Protein backbone atom coordinates (compact mmCIF):
# COMPACT_ATOMS: atom_id res chain seq x y z
CA UNK A 1 0.00 0.00 0.00
CA UNK A 2 1.30 3.43 -0.89
CA UNK A 3 2.02 6.15 1.62
CA UNK A 4 -0.95 8.15 0.39
CA UNK A 5 -3.21 5.15 0.83
CA UNK A 6 -2.06 4.66 4.38
CA UNK A 7 -2.66 8.32 5.11
CA UNK A 8 -6.24 8.04 3.90
CA UNK A 9 -6.74 4.99 6.08
CA UNK A 10 -5.32 6.83 9.09
CA UNK A 11 -7.63 9.76 8.40
CA UNK A 12 -10.66 7.54 8.17
CA UNK A 13 -9.81 5.71 11.36
CA UNK A 14 -9.36 9.00 13.17
CA UNK A 15 -12.69 10.23 11.90
CA UNK A 16 -14.38 7.02 13.02
CA UNK A 17 -12.82 7.28 16.45
CA UNK A 18 -14.00 10.89 16.71
CA UNK A 19 -17.52 9.55 16.34
CA UNK A 20 -18.14 10.80 12.80
CA UNK A 21 -20.20 8.70 10.50
CA UNK A 22 -18.20 6.80 7.90
CA UNK A 23 -18.80 8.15 4.41
CA UNK A 24 -21.23 6.14 2.35
CA UNK A 25 -19.82 3.79 -0.19
CA UNK A 26 -18.86 5.57 -3.38
CA UNK A 27 -19.62 9.07 -2.17
CA UNK A 28 -17.37 11.60 -0.48
CA UNK A 29 -19.68 14.43 0.55
CA UNK A 30 -23.46 14.50 0.52
CA UNK A 31 -24.99 15.67 -2.74
CA UNK A 32 -27.01 18.28 -0.91
CA UNK A 33 -25.88 19.71 2.42
CA UNK A 34 -27.98 22.21 4.33
CA UNK A 35 -26.09 23.81 7.23
CA UNK A 36 -27.62 26.07 9.84
CA UNK A 37 -30.08 27.59 7.39
CA UNK A 38 -32.42 30.29 8.65
CA UNK A 39 -35.03 31.84 6.40
CA UNK A 40 -37.24 34.80 7.21
CA UNK A 41 -40.43 36.21 5.79
CA UNK A 42 -39.98 39.82 6.75
CA UNK A 43 -39.13 39.58 10.43
CA UNK A 44 -40.76 36.20 10.95
CA UNK A 45 -38.35 33.27 11.03
CA UNK A 46 -39.70 30.31 9.07
CA UNK A 47 -36.53 28.22 9.38
CA UNK A 48 -34.29 28.45 12.43
CA UNK A 49 -30.95 26.82 11.73
CA UNK A 50 -31.83 23.71 9.76
CA UNK A 51 -29.16 21.03 9.17
CA UNK A 52 -29.82 18.28 6.72
CA UNK A 53 -28.00 16.01 4.25
CA UNK A 54 -29.06 14.18 1.16
CA UNK A 55 -26.56 11.69 -0.21
CA UNK A 56 -26.42 10.54 -3.82
CA UNK A 57 -28.84 7.72 -4.52
CA UNK A 58 -30.94 8.22 -1.40
CA UNK A 59 -34.60 8.96 -0.85
CA UNK A 60 -34.74 11.37 2.07
CA UNK A 61 -37.99 12.61 3.46
CA UNK A 62 -38.83 15.62 5.56
CA UNK A 63 -42.02 15.31 7.54
CA UNK A 64 -43.79 17.85 9.67
CA UNK A 65 -47.07 19.54 10.34
CA UNK A 66 -48.66 22.33 8.35
CA UNK A 67 -46.62 25.49 8.66
CA UNK A 68 -43.53 23.77 10.05
CA UNK A 69 -41.45 25.27 7.24
CA UNK A 70 -41.17 22.27 4.91
CA UNK A 71 -42.04 24.12 1.73
CA UNK A 72 -39.96 27.09 2.84
CA UNK A 73 -36.95 24.78 3.02
CA UNK A 74 -37.69 23.43 -0.47
CA UNK A 75 -37.82 26.93 -1.87
CA UNK A 76 -34.81 28.10 0.14
CA UNK A 77 -32.74 25.36 -1.49
CA UNK A 78 -33.69 27.03 -4.77
CA UNK A 79 -32.84 30.49 -3.47
CA UNK A 80 -36.38 31.84 -3.43
CA UNK A 81 -36.41 33.12 -0.71
CA UNK A 82 -32.70 33.11 0.01
CA UNK A 83 -31.46 31.92 3.37
CA UNK A 84 -30.58 34.77 5.66
CA UNK A 85 -27.88 32.75 7.36
CA UNK A 86 -26.30 29.32 7.00
CA UNK A 87 -25.22 27.65 3.81
CA UNK A 88 -26.52 25.24 1.20
CA UNK A 89 -24.07 23.20 -0.85
CA UNK A 90 -24.94 21.11 -3.85
CA UNK A 91 -22.35 18.76 -5.30
CA UNK A 92 -19.62 20.65 -3.43
CA UNK A 93 -20.64 24.10 -4.70
CA UNK A 94 -22.13 26.76 -2.46
CA UNK A 95 -25.53 27.68 -3.91
CA UNK A 96 -26.87 29.75 -1.01
CA UNK A 97 -26.73 33.05 -2.87
CA UNK A 98 -27.20 31.84 -6.43
CA UNK A 99 -30.25 32.99 -8.42
CA UNK A 100 -33.04 30.42 -8.75
CA UNK A 101 -32.65 29.73 -12.45
CA UNK A 102 -28.91 29.08 -12.08
CA UNK A 103 -29.56 26.57 -9.31
CA UNK A 104 -32.02 24.79 -11.58
CA UNK A 105 -29.31 24.56 -14.23
CA UNK A 106 -27.04 22.62 -11.85
CA UNK A 107 -29.27 19.55 -12.04
CA UNK A 108 -31.85 20.10 -9.32
CA UNK A 109 -35.51 19.99 -10.18
CA UNK A 110 -38.54 20.63 -8.06
CA UNK A 111 -42.16 19.71 -8.17
CA UNK A 112 -43.29 22.51 -5.90
CA UNK A 113 -46.05 22.99 -3.39
CA UNK A 114 -49.37 23.54 -5.14
CA UNK A 115 -48.07 21.83 -8.30
CA UNK A 116 -47.83 25.09 -10.24
CA UNK A 117 -48.39 23.66 -13.70
CA UNK A 118 -48.73 26.37 -16.34
CA UNK A 119 -52.53 26.36 -16.62
CA UNK A 120 -52.88 27.97 -20.04
CA UNK A 121 -50.31 25.76 -21.69
CA UNK A 122 -50.92 22.30 -22.97
CA UNK A 123 -49.49 19.33 -21.11
CA UNK A 124 -47.00 18.93 -23.94
CA UNK A 125 -45.88 22.54 -23.60
CA UNK A 126 -45.54 22.14 -19.86
CA UNK A 127 -43.23 19.20 -20.46
CA UNK A 128 -41.29 21.22 -23.03
CA UNK A 129 -40.83 23.88 -20.37
CA UNK A 130 -39.43 21.21 -18.08
CA UNK A 131 -36.95 20.24 -20.78
CA UNK A 132 -35.95 23.77 -21.66
CA UNK A 133 -32.53 23.43 -20.03
CA UNK A 134 -31.55 20.89 -22.67
CA UNK A 135 -32.98 22.84 -25.56
CA UNK A 136 -35.08 19.87 -26.62
CA UNK A 137 -32.15 17.53 -27.25
CA UNK A 138 -33.53 14.50 -25.40
CA UNK A 139 -37.13 15.59 -25.56
CA UNK A 140 -38.66 12.70 -27.50
CA UNK A 141 -36.82 10.08 -25.49
CA UNK A 142 -37.66 11.66 -22.12
CA UNK A 143 -41.26 12.21 -23.14
CA UNK A 144 -41.60 8.47 -23.77
CA UNK A 145 -40.11 7.77 -20.35
CA UNK A 146 -42.46 9.99 -18.38
CA UNK A 147 -45.40 8.68 -20.39
CA UNK A 148 -44.52 5.17 -19.29
CA UNK A 149 -44.26 6.37 -15.71
CA UNK A 150 -47.51 8.36 -15.89
CA UNK A 151 -49.79 6.99 -18.61
CA UNK A 152 -52.42 9.61 -17.72
CA UNK A 153 -50.06 12.34 -18.81
CA UNK A 154 -49.80 10.71 -22.20
CA UNK A 155 -53.57 10.63 -22.63
CA UNK A 156 -53.78 14.34 -21.94
CA UNK A 157 -50.80 15.61 -23.93
CA UNK A 158 -52.75 18.17 -25.94
CA UNK A 159 -55.11 19.30 -23.23
CA UNK A 160 -54.59 22.55 -21.36
CA UNK A 161 -52.97 21.77 -18.04
CA UNK A 162 -55.38 24.01 -16.12
CA UNK A 163 -58.33 21.83 -17.09
CA UNK A 164 -56.92 18.63 -15.61
CA UNK A 165 -57.82 17.17 -12.24
CA UNK A 166 -55.61 17.68 -9.21
CA UNK A 167 -54.06 14.24 -9.43
CA UNK A 168 -53.28 14.63 -13.11
CA UNK A 169 -51.74 18.02 -12.44
CA UNK A 170 -49.59 16.46 -9.74
CA UNK A 171 -48.36 13.81 -12.13
CA UNK A 172 -47.65 16.49 -14.69
CA UNK A 173 -45.71 18.54 -12.15
CA UNK A 174 -43.50 15.54 -11.36
CA UNK A 175 -43.18 14.62 -15.02
CA UNK A 176 -42.20 18.18 -15.86
CA UNK A 177 -39.50 18.12 -13.18
CA UNK A 178 -38.19 14.84 -14.59
CA UNK A 179 -37.89 16.31 -18.08
CA UNK A 180 -34.85 18.29 -16.99
CA UNK A 181 -33.02 15.02 -16.18
CA UNK A 182 -32.28 16.02 -12.61
CA UNK A 183 -29.68 14.44 -10.40
CA UNK A 184 -31.63 15.57 -7.38
CA UNK A 185 -35.41 15.68 -7.46
CA UNK A 186 -37.28 17.70 -4.85
CA UNK A 187 -40.91 16.76 -4.37
CA UNK A 188 -43.14 18.94 -2.24
CA UNK A 189 -46.23 17.12 -0.97
CA UNK A 190 -46.91 15.01 -4.03
CA UNK A 191 -49.79 13.32 -2.19
CA UNK A 192 -51.62 16.46 -1.09
CA UNK A 193 -55.34 16.27 -1.68
CA UNK A 194 -55.19 13.15 -3.81
CA UNK A 195 -57.19 9.95 -3.69
CA UNK A 196 -55.40 7.02 -2.01
CA UNK A 197 -55.07 5.09 -5.25
CA UNK A 198 -53.45 8.06 -6.98
CA UNK A 199 -51.13 8.52 -4.02
CA UNK A 200 -50.07 4.92 -4.30
CA UNK A 201 -49.35 5.37 -8.00
CA UNK A 202 -47.22 8.42 -7.34
CA UNK A 203 -45.25 6.77 -4.53
CA UNK A 204 -44.65 3.72 -6.72
CA UNK A 205 -43.31 6.01 -9.41
CA UNK A 206 -40.96 7.68 -6.92
CA UNK A 207 -39.65 4.31 -5.80
CA UNK A 208 -39.03 3.25 -9.39
CA UNK A 209 -37.18 6.44 -10.20
CA UNK A 210 -34.88 5.83 -7.28
CA UNK A 211 -34.33 2.10 -7.81
CA UNK A 212 -34.16 1.95 -11.58
CA UNK A 213 -32.62 5.29 -12.48
CA UNK A 214 -30.67 5.85 -9.26
CA UNK A 215 -32.21 9.27 -8.90
CA UNK A 216 -31.66 11.06 -5.61
CA UNK A 217 -34.96 12.21 -4.15
CA UNK A 218 -35.78 14.65 -1.40
CA UNK A 219 -39.41 14.32 -0.46
CA UNK A 220 -41.45 16.64 1.70
CA UNK A 221 -44.62 15.05 3.02
CA UNK A 222 -47.45 15.46 5.43
CA UNK A 223 -48.39 11.89 4.70
CA UNK A 224 -45.73 10.68 7.14
CA UNK A 225 -46.54 7.00 7.05
CA UNK A 226 -46.12 6.55 3.31
CA UNK A 227 -43.13 8.85 3.15
CA UNK A 228 -41.21 7.12 5.95
CA UNK A 229 -41.94 3.71 4.50
CA UNK A 230 -40.54 4.80 1.17
CA UNK A 231 -37.51 6.78 2.34
CA UNK A 232 -34.08 5.58 3.37
CA UNK A 233 -33.82 8.35 5.90
CA UNK A 234 -36.09 10.98 7.33
CA UNK A 235 -36.08 14.25 9.22
CA UNK A 236 -38.81 15.74 11.35
CA UNK A 237 -39.33 19.48 11.14
CA UNK A 238 -41.14 21.31 13.93
CA UNK A 239 -41.55 25.08 13.92
CA UNK A 240 -38.59 25.62 11.65
CA UNK A 241 -36.21 23.28 13.48
CA UNK A 242 -35.17 19.70 12.79
CA UNK A 243 -36.08 17.86 15.97
CA UNK A 244 -35.37 14.30 14.95
CA UNK A 245 -33.68 12.31 12.25
CA UNK A 246 -32.97 8.70 11.49
CA UNK A 247 -33.72 5.91 9.09
CA UNK A 248 -37.26 5.65 7.80
CA UNK A 249 -37.79 2.53 9.90
CA UNK A 250 -36.47 4.15 13.10
CA UNK A 251 -38.75 7.13 12.72
CA UNK A 252 -41.75 4.96 11.95
CA UNK A 253 -41.18 3.08 15.19
CA UNK A 254 -40.40 6.14 17.25
CA UNK A 255 -43.13 6.75 19.83
CA UNK A 256 -42.92 10.53 19.55
CA UNK A 257 -43.23 10.43 15.77
CA UNK A 258 -46.05 7.94 16.09
CA UNK A 259 -47.93 10.14 18.49
CA UNK A 260 -47.47 13.33 16.51
CA UNK A 261 -47.68 12.20 12.88
CA UNK A 262 -48.89 8.64 12.64
CA UNK A 263 -51.67 8.48 15.20
CA UNK A 264 -54.62 6.97 13.49
CA UNK A 265 -52.04 5.08 11.50
CA UNK A 266 -52.07 4.24 7.87
CA UNK A 267 -55.79 3.71 7.84
CA UNK A 268 -56.22 7.49 7.84
CA UNK A 269 -52.95 9.12 6.83
CA UNK A 270 -52.41 12.67 7.97
CA UNK A 271 -53.80 15.28 5.65
CA UNK A 272 -56.60 13.06 4.44
CA UNK B 1 -71.85 52.28 -49.27
CA UNK B 2 -68.95 54.07 -50.93
CA UNK B 3 -68.23 56.14 -47.87
CA UNK B 4 -68.56 53.03 -45.75
CA UNK B 5 -65.95 51.07 -47.72
CA UNK B 6 -63.61 54.03 -47.75
CA UNK B 7 -63.91 54.44 -43.99
CA UNK B 8 -63.44 50.72 -43.54
CA UNK B 9 -60.10 50.96 -45.34
CA UNK B 10 -59.06 54.02 -43.36
CA UNK B 11 -60.16 52.45 -40.11
CA UNK B 12 -58.27 49.22 -40.69
CA UNK B 13 -55.13 51.17 -41.52
CA UNK B 14 -55.32 53.21 -38.36
CA UNK B 15 -56.32 50.12 -36.40
CA UNK B 16 -53.22 48.26 -37.62
CA UNK B 17 -51.05 50.96 -36.11
CA UNK B 18 -52.96 50.91 -32.82
CA UNK B 19 -52.76 47.13 -32.75
CA UNK B 20 -48.98 47.15 -33.11
CA UNK B 21 -48.63 49.57 -30.22
CA UNK B 22 -51.22 47.73 -28.13
CA UNK B 23 -49.16 44.52 -28.22
CA UNK B 24 -46.43 46.28 -26.25
CA UNK B 25 -48.91 47.25 -23.54
CA UNK B 26 -50.52 43.87 -23.35
CA UNK B 27 -47.27 41.85 -23.26
CA UNK B 28 -45.74 43.95 -20.52
CA UNK B 29 -48.95 43.85 -18.53
CA UNK B 30 -49.12 40.10 -19.04
CA UNK B 31 -45.66 39.42 -17.71
CA UNK B 32 -45.20 41.93 -14.89
CA UNK B 33 -48.75 43.18 -14.33
CA UNK B 34 -47.83 46.76 -14.97
CA UNK B 35 -49.23 49.35 -17.39
CA UNK B 36 -46.21 50.79 -19.13
CA UNK B 37 -47.36 54.38 -19.48
CA UNK B 38 -44.13 55.27 -21.24
CA UNK B 39 -44.97 52.99 -24.18
CA UNK B 40 -46.77 55.73 -26.13
CA UNK B 41 -43.71 57.92 -25.84
CA UNK B 42 -41.48 55.07 -26.94
CA UNK B 43 -43.70 54.97 -30.02
CA UNK B 44 -43.23 58.73 -30.52
CA UNK B 45 -39.50 58.35 -30.06
CA UNK B 46 -39.43 55.69 -32.77
CA UNK B 47 -41.12 58.15 -35.16
CA UNK B 48 -38.24 60.55 -34.60
CA UNK B 49 -35.64 57.82 -34.97
CA UNK B 50 -37.33 56.85 -38.24
CA UNK B 51 -37.44 60.45 -39.40
CA UNK B 52 -33.76 61.03 -38.68
CA UNK B 53 -32.77 57.73 -40.27
CA UNK B 54 -34.82 58.58 -43.34
CA UNK B 55 -33.25 62.02 -43.70
CA UNK B 56 -29.74 60.64 -43.28
CA UNK B 57 -30.42 57.97 -45.89
CA UNK B 58 -31.91 60.26 -48.48
CA UNK B 59 -29.94 63.48 -48.07
CA UNK B 60 -26.50 62.28 -46.97
CA UNK B 61 -26.25 58.86 -48.46
CA UNK B 62 -28.38 59.69 -51.46
CA UNK B 63 -30.42 56.52 -51.50
CA UNK B 64 -33.23 56.93 -53.98
CA UNK B 65 -34.88 53.52 -53.91
CA UNK B 66 -38.05 53.86 -51.83
CA UNK B 67 -38.22 50.19 -50.97
CA UNK B 68 -34.63 50.09 -49.77
CA UNK B 69 -35.01 53.30 -47.77
CA UNK B 70 -38.18 52.00 -46.13
CA UNK B 71 -36.59 48.69 -45.18
CA UNK B 72 -33.46 50.30 -43.77
CA UNK B 73 -35.49 52.84 -41.82
CA UNK B 74 -37.71 50.10 -40.47
CA UNK B 75 -34.78 47.98 -39.30
CA UNK B 76 -32.87 50.92 -37.82
CA UNK B 77 -35.94 52.21 -36.00
CA UNK B 78 -36.74 48.75 -34.64
CA UNK B 79 -33.19 48.21 -33.39
CA UNK B 80 -32.72 51.60 -31.77
CA UNK B 81 -36.18 51.70 -30.24
CA UNK B 82 -35.69 48.19 -28.90
CA UNK B 83 -32.49 49.41 -27.29
CA UNK B 84 -34.44 52.23 -25.66
CA UNK B 85 -37.07 49.79 -24.47
CA UNK B 86 -34.39 47.59 -22.96
CA UNK B 87 -32.67 50.53 -21.26
CA UNK B 88 -35.91 51.92 -19.84
CA UNK B 89 -36.80 48.59 -18.28
CA UNK B 90 -33.32 48.24 -16.87
CA UNK B 91 -33.10 51.73 -15.40
CA UNK B 92 -36.65 52.59 -14.44
CA UNK B 93 -38.55 49.36 -13.79
CA UNK B 94 -36.25 46.52 -12.81
CA UNK B 95 -34.90 48.19 -9.65
CA UNK B 96 -38.50 48.59 -8.51
CA UNK B 97 -39.46 44.97 -8.98
CA UNK B 98 -40.61 43.59 -5.67
CA UNK B 99 -41.48 47.07 -4.52
CA UNK B 100 -45.11 48.08 -3.99
CA UNK B 101 -47.36 47.81 -7.03
CA UNK B 102 -47.72 51.50 -7.70
CA UNK B 103 -43.97 52.19 -7.78
CA UNK B 104 -43.21 51.04 -11.35
CA UNK B 105 -46.41 52.71 -12.53
CA UNK B 106 -45.27 56.06 -11.20
CA UNK B 107 -41.82 55.41 -12.60
CA UNK B 108 -43.42 54.76 -15.99
CA UNK B 109 -45.22 58.10 -15.87
CA UNK B 110 -41.85 59.67 -15.07
CA UNK B 111 -40.25 57.97 -18.07
CA UNK B 112 -43.13 59.16 -20.24
CA UNK B 113 -42.61 62.77 -19.17
CA UNK B 114 -38.87 62.42 -19.57
CA UNK B 115 -39.13 61.05 -23.11
CA UNK B 116 -41.50 63.69 -24.43
CA UNK B 117 -39.48 66.49 -22.85
CA UNK B 118 -36.22 64.99 -24.03
CA UNK B 119 -37.48 64.89 -27.59
CA UNK B 120 -38.89 68.40 -27.28
CA UNK B 121 -35.52 69.73 -26.12
CA UNK B 122 -33.33 67.99 -28.66
CA UNK B 123 -35.72 68.15 -31.64
CA UNK B 124 -37.70 71.30 -30.95
CA UNK B 125 -41.38 71.67 -30.26
CA UNK B 126 -42.55 72.17 -33.82
CA UNK B 127 -44.11 69.54 -36.02
CA UNK B 128 -41.49 67.75 -38.06
CA UNK B 129 -42.59 67.01 -41.62
CA UNK B 130 -41.17 64.18 -43.66
CA UNK B 131 -40.99 64.14 -47.44
CA UNK B 132 -43.67 61.84 -48.86
CA UNK B 133 -42.26 58.36 -49.19
CA UNK B 134 -44.90 56.68 -51.23
CA UNK B 135 -47.74 58.25 -53.13
CA UNK B 136 -50.47 57.05 -55.42
CA UNK B 137 -52.86 54.19 -55.05
CA UNK B 138 -55.65 52.25 -56.61
CA UNK B 139 -59.18 53.50 -57.21
CA UNK B 140 -61.27 50.52 -56.21
CA UNK B 141 -64.54 51.79 -57.67
CA UNK B 142 -66.18 55.06 -58.42
CA UNK B 143 -69.83 56.02 -58.21
CA UNK B 144 -71.62 59.36 -58.39
CA UNK B 145 -68.28 61.10 -58.39
CA UNK B 146 -67.16 59.46 -55.11
CA UNK B 147 -64.06 57.32 -55.61
CA UNK B 148 -63.13 54.66 -53.09
CA UNK B 149 -59.40 54.94 -52.93
CA UNK B 150 -56.88 52.52 -51.52
CA UNK B 151 -53.50 54.20 -51.32
CA UNK B 152 -50.25 52.30 -51.63
CA UNK B 153 -49.38 53.56 -48.18
CA UNK B 154 -52.44 51.89 -46.75
CA UNK B 155 -51.61 48.67 -48.57
CA UNK B 156 -48.11 48.79 -47.20
CA UNK B 157 -49.30 49.47 -43.64
CA UNK B 158 -51.72 46.57 -43.64
CA UNK B 159 -49.26 44.24 -45.35
CA UNK B 160 -46.38 45.07 -43.00
CA UNK B 161 -48.66 44.71 -39.99
CA UNK B 162 -49.96 41.36 -41.19
CA UNK B 163 -46.51 39.98 -41.93
CA UNK B 164 -44.99 41.16 -38.65
CA UNK B 165 -47.90 39.93 -36.58
CA UNK B 166 -47.67 36.52 -38.20
CA UNK B 167 -43.97 36.35 -37.45
CA UNK B 168 -44.59 37.58 -33.96
CA UNK B 169 -47.37 35.06 -33.37
CA UNK B 170 -45.02 32.31 -34.51
CA UNK B 171 -42.34 33.56 -32.14
CA UNK B 172 -44.65 33.52 -29.14
CA UNK B 173 -46.48 30.28 -29.90
CA UNK B 174 -43.82 28.06 -31.40
CA UNK B 175 -40.34 29.00 -30.24
CA UNK B 176 -38.63 28.21 -26.92
CA UNK B 177 -38.37 31.93 -26.20
CA UNK B 178 -42.10 32.39 -26.71
CA UNK B 179 -42.81 29.44 -24.44
CA UNK B 180 -40.55 30.89 -21.76
CA UNK B 181 -42.30 34.20 -22.19
CA UNK B 182 -45.73 32.65 -21.72
CA UNK B 183 -44.47 30.60 -18.79
CA UNK B 184 -43.19 33.71 -17.04
CA UNK B 185 -46.54 35.32 -17.69
CA UNK B 186 -48.39 32.47 -15.99
CA UNK B 187 -46.04 31.75 -13.09
CA UNK B 188 -42.73 33.56 -12.84
CA UNK B 189 -41.49 31.66 -9.82
CA UNK B 190 -42.17 28.31 -11.43
CA UNK B 191 -40.43 29.40 -14.62
CA UNK B 192 -37.35 30.24 -12.57
CA UNK B 193 -37.49 26.81 -10.93
CA UNK B 194 -37.26 25.33 -14.42
CA UNK B 195 -34.12 27.29 -15.18
CA UNK B 196 -35.68 30.20 -17.05
CA UNK B 197 -33.88 33.51 -16.51
CA UNK B 198 -36.95 35.57 -15.68
CA UNK B 199 -35.20 38.95 -15.75
CA UNK B 200 -33.84 38.25 -19.19
CA UNK B 201 -37.27 37.16 -20.42
CA UNK B 202 -38.83 40.37 -19.09
CA UNK B 203 -36.09 42.40 -20.79
CA UNK B 204 -36.79 40.66 -24.06
CA UNK B 205 -40.49 41.35 -23.66
CA UNK B 206 -39.77 45.06 -23.43
CA UNK B 207 -37.42 44.80 -26.40
CA UNK B 208 -40.10 43.10 -28.49
CA UNK B 209 -42.81 45.53 -27.44
CA UNK B 210 -40.59 48.48 -28.31
CA UNK B 211 -39.65 46.97 -31.67
CA UNK B 212 -43.32 46.55 -32.59
CA UNK B 213 -44.02 50.12 -31.44
CA UNK B 214 -41.18 51.18 -33.76
CA UNK B 215 -42.90 49.45 -36.67
CA UNK B 216 -46.03 51.39 -35.76
CA UNK B 217 -43.92 54.55 -35.56
CA UNK B 218 -42.44 54.11 -39.02
CA UNK B 219 -45.87 53.41 -40.49
CA UNK B 220 -47.45 56.33 -38.64
CA UNK B 221 -44.77 58.71 -39.86
CA UNK B 222 -45.18 57.49 -43.40
CA UNK B 223 -48.97 57.72 -43.23
CA UNK B 224 -49.31 61.18 -41.69
CA UNK B 225 -46.01 62.62 -42.87
CA UNK B 226 -45.58 64.65 -39.72
CA UNK B 227 -44.65 64.04 -36.10
CA UNK B 228 -44.21 66.13 -32.96
CA UNK B 229 -42.88 65.45 -29.48
CA UNK B 230 -46.41 65.30 -28.07
CA UNK B 231 -47.60 62.63 -30.49
CA UNK B 232 -46.91 59.82 -28.06
CA UNK B 233 -49.76 60.51 -25.71
CA UNK B 234 -52.97 60.20 -27.71
CA UNK B 235 -52.01 57.20 -29.90
CA UNK B 236 -50.49 55.66 -26.78
CA UNK B 237 -53.65 55.97 -24.74
CA UNK B 238 -55.75 54.76 -27.67
CA UNK B 239 -53.55 51.71 -28.05
CA UNK B 240 -53.91 51.13 -24.33
CA UNK B 241 -57.68 51.36 -24.78
CA UNK B 242 -57.33 48.80 -27.55
CA UNK B 243 -55.42 46.48 -25.25
CA UNK B 244 -58.07 46.79 -22.55
CA UNK B 245 -60.91 46.35 -25.04
CA UNK B 246 -59.31 43.22 -26.50
CA UNK B 247 -58.58 41.88 -23.03
CA UNK B 248 -55.34 42.99 -21.49
CA UNK B 249 -52.77 40.22 -21.51
CA UNK B 250 -54.17 38.70 -24.72
CA UNK B 251 -52.11 39.14 -27.87
CA UNK B 252 -54.86 38.49 -30.42
CA UNK B 253 -57.03 40.70 -28.21
CA UNK B 254 -54.61 43.59 -28.61
CA UNK B 255 -54.75 43.36 -32.39
CA UNK B 256 -58.51 42.96 -32.44
CA UNK B 257 -58.93 45.84 -30.01
CA UNK B 258 -56.65 48.00 -32.14
CA UNK B 259 -58.69 47.32 -35.25
CA UNK B 260 -61.96 48.04 -33.45
CA UNK B 261 -60.69 51.30 -31.98
CA UNK B 262 -59.37 52.33 -35.40
CA UNK B 263 -62.71 51.55 -37.00
CA UNK B 264 -64.75 53.30 -34.32
CA UNK B 265 -62.61 56.38 -34.59
CA UNK B 266 -62.81 56.68 -38.38
CA UNK B 267 -66.51 55.84 -38.60
CA UNK B 268 -67.32 58.27 -35.84
CA UNK B 269 -65.34 60.98 -37.64
CA UNK B 270 -67.08 60.23 -40.92
CA UNK B 271 -70.67 59.89 -39.77
CA UNK B 272 -70.87 62.00 -36.63
CA UNK B 273 -68.27 64.48 -35.68
CA UNK B 274 -64.56 64.57 -36.16
CA UNK B 275 -64.10 66.78 -33.10
CA UNK B 276 -65.48 64.07 -30.88
CA UNK B 277 -63.50 61.14 -32.28
CA UNK B 278 -61.27 60.92 -29.23
CA UNK B 279 -64.29 61.07 -26.96
CA UNK B 280 -65.73 58.10 -28.83
CA UNK B 281 -62.54 56.10 -28.47
CA UNK B 282 -62.17 56.83 -24.77
CA UNK B 283 -65.82 56.22 -24.05
CA UNK B 284 -65.10 52.72 -25.26
CA UNK B 285 -62.40 52.46 -22.58
CA UNK B 286 -64.84 53.50 -19.89
CA UNK B 287 -67.62 51.25 -21.16
CA UNK B 288 -65.29 48.27 -21.43
CA UNK B 289 -63.94 48.78 -17.94
CA UNK B 290 -67.43 49.01 -16.48
CA UNK B 291 -69.28 46.27 -18.34
CA UNK B 292 -66.59 43.92 -19.60
CA UNK B 293 -63.48 44.38 -17.49
CA UNK B 294 -61.77 41.30 -18.88
CA UNK B 295 -62.23 42.51 -22.47
CA UNK B 296 -63.30 40.63 -25.58
CA UNK B 297 -60.66 37.92 -25.60
CA UNK B 298 -59.50 38.32 -22.03
CA UNK B 299 -59.74 35.29 -19.83
CA UNK B 300 -62.18 35.20 -17.00
CA UNK B 301 -60.30 33.16 -14.41
CA UNK B 302 -61.98 29.78 -14.49
CA UNK B 303 -59.07 27.47 -13.92
CA UNK B 304 -59.57 24.25 -12.10
CA UNK B 305 -57.60 23.83 -8.92
Report on the structure:
The complex is a heterodimer of chains A (272) and B (305). Chain A is of the alpha/beta class and 272 residues long. Chain A is built from eleven helices and ten strands. Chain A has helices at residues 3-17, 70-77, 100-104, 123-130, 139-149, 151-155, 166-178, 196-213, 224-230, 248-253, 255-262, and strands spanning 32-41, 44-54, 59-64, 85-90, 93-94, 108-111, 184-188, 216-221, 233-238, 241-247. Chain A has a six-stranded mixed sheet with strand order 6-7-8-3-9-10, sandwiched between helices. In chain A, strands 2-1-4-5 form a four-stranded antiparallel sheet, with helices on one face. In chain A, β4 and β5 form a beta hairpin. The longest helix of chain A has 18 residues, at 196-213. By secondary structure, chain B is mainly alpha-helical. Chain B has helices at residues 2-32, 39-60, 66-93, 102-123, 152-174, 176-186, 188-193, 198-224, 233-246, 251-271, 277-291, and strands at residues 128-129, 137-143, 146-151, 226-227. In chain B, α2 (39-60) runs antiparallel to α3 (66-93). The chains are: A alpha/beta (272), B mainly alpha (305).
Question: What descriptors fit this protein?
Answer:
heterodimer, A: 272 residues, alpha/beta, six-stranded mixed β-sheet, four-stranded antiparallel β-sheet, disordered C terminus, B: 305 residues, mainly alpha, two-stranded antiparallel sheet, two-stranded antiparallel ribbon, globular
Walk me through the topology.
The complex is a heterodimer of chains A (272) and B (305).
Chain A: H1 3-17, E1 32-41, E2 44-54, E3 59-64, H2 70-77, E4 85-90, E5 93-94, H3 100-104, E6 108-111, H4 123-130, H5 139-149, H6 151-155, H7 166-178, E7 184-188, H8 196-213, E8 216-221, H9 224-230, E9 233-238, E10 241-247, H10 248-253, H11 255-262
Chain B: H1 2-32, H2 39-60, H3 66-93, H4 102-123, E1 128-129, E2 137-143, E3 146-151, H5 152-174, H6 176-186, H7 188-193, H8 198-224, E4 226-227, H9 233-246, H10 251-271, H11 277-291
Antiparallel strand pairs in B: 1-4, 2-3
Helix pairs in contact in B: 1-5, 1-8, 1-9, 1-10, 2-3, 2-4, 2-8, 2-9, 3-8, 5-6, 5-8, 6-8, 9-10, 9-11, 10-11
